[in-house]
Amino acid sequence: MTPGKTFDVRWLIAGLLGLYGAVLTVLGLTDSAAEVAKADGIRINLWIGLGLLAVATAFAAWAKLAPQGRDGS
Asked: Whole domain around residue 51: which residue ranges?
């Protein structure tokens, strides 16, 4: 790896969003009936978790398919 490509913030963002998304997805799958009732019957943790996982996947694909050039572009 060249020095210009050692750090790409898109990988950091993808990792953090993926981690938070995975945690929320697991919480959403294990929500109690009372927690679902508080959210008007919507498993909000599950849906937000899946959304975060989708965005994390998009960031990772973006970083993989369009890597930073040596000049920072």
From this structure: 9-65
pTM reported for the whole predicted model: 0.82
Query: Are the beta carbons of 11 and 63 closer than 8 angstroms?
Result: yes
Report in angstroms the alpha-carbon separations of 57 from 19, 35, 36, 68.
11, 28, 27, 18
Q: Which of 46, 66, 52 is nearest to 17 (CA)?
A: 52
What digits encode the pLDDT tens for the residues 12-54? 999 999 999 999 999 999 999 999 999 999 999 999 999 999 9
CA–CA separation, 10 and 8 (whole Å): 5
Residue at 73 is within a domain: no
Q: C-alpha angle with apex 49: 48 to 50, nearest 5 degrees?
A: 90
Q: How many structural domains are present in the chain? A: 1
